[in-house]
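Sequence, please.
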């Protein structure tokens, strides 16, 4: 009778040989992964073969302990005092994000935003291939934008089913977004990337990621306003200390 074999542990610095089981990774961790990936590709371009969490975190302005904790969600182990193999860590992150397999997507809305998204070549590096665009404007239907054909929206659901497309991208005005989302769902789309500035009513089994640019702009604008206020106050204090005036526009400042 043979003794039962125990599964072998991966060698330090090696990714697991088998596909990882599905796991729930916190969203903040997922949002940091592209930054790690960009820095790692830079390191690889510089000829670096191994990288420590300390060095990687320093490149991104993060706490090394945070990077070390984030990498525990990946199917790769590091070496003490050495770190991780750059190429291996890149592959592990790409696998975690699903960027090692290209997924086809449909885009709806061939306006300015839609054209910009179609023209972004980086999507292919991130595992996304926009195979067709859709619109209701007769002037846009039939056009070829950055190599992608624009089709009538009425064909979306049928094509999505036949081609088994899983991802839909909404780049329409807010007023049209819900109708578009309904057609995506009817076509069996499993995930929606919504660039329209409006919430969508979507069945719970369909994943939605809202990309509201106005929210990001609001944060940026407020932070800029706060920084200018701090700078104005600092200038006022310097003027008062140096010249006895509180007007930073004064000739004495």
């Amino acid at each position: 009778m043979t003794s039962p074999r125990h599964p072998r542990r991966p060698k330090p610095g090696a990714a697991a040989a088998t596909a990882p089981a599905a796991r729930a990774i916190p969203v903040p961790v997922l949002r940091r992964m592209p930054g790690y990936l960009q820095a790692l590709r830079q390191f690889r371009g510089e000829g670096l073969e191994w990288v420590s969490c300390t060095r990687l975190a320093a490149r991104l302005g993060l706490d090394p302990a945070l990077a070390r904790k984030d990498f525990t969600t990946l199917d790769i182990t590091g070496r003490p005092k050495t770190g991780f193999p750059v190429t291996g860590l890149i592959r592990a992150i790409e696998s975690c994000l699903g960027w090692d397999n290209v997924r086809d997507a449909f885009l709806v809305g061939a306006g300015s935003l839609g054209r910009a998204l179609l023209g972004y070549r980086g999507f292919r590096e991130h595992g996304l291939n926009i195979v067709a665009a859709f619109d209701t404007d007769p002037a846009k239907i039939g056009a070829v934008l950055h190599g992608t054909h624009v089709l009538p929206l009425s064909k979306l659901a049928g094509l999505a089913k036949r081609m088994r497309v899983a991802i839909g991208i909404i780049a329409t005005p807010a007023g049209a977004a819900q109708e578009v989302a309904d057609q995506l769902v009817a076509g069996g789309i499993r995930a929606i990337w919504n660039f329209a500035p409006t919430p969508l009513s979507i069945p719970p089994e369909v994943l939605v990621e809202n990309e509201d640019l106005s929210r990001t702009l609001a944060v940026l604008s407020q932070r800029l306003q706060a920084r200018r206020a701090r700078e104005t106050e600092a200038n006022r204090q310097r003027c008062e200390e140096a010249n006895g005036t509180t007007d930073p526009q004064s000739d004495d400042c």
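The two ends are 91 Å apart (CA to CA).
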